[in-house]
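JOB MANIFEST
job_type = single_chain_structure
chain_count = 1
residues = 54
[input]
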Amino acid sequence: MSQLDHQIVGCERAVVLGLDAERVITAWSVDHLLAWAWAWAWGPAAGWLRGWGC
């Protein structure tokens, strides 16, 4: 199975599950993706995720 086959299968699964584009990370704009990544890595929960708040 090629990389493009995986993309097709993923899209088909998203449709079957009733997901909208907002739930598919690869459908996000670059700005949205970078904001999400920054928030995950450095946001309020980041310390807890790394064990800093324990």
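[summary]
The chain has a mean pLDDT of 81.
DSSP finds three helices and no strands in the chain.
exit_status = 0
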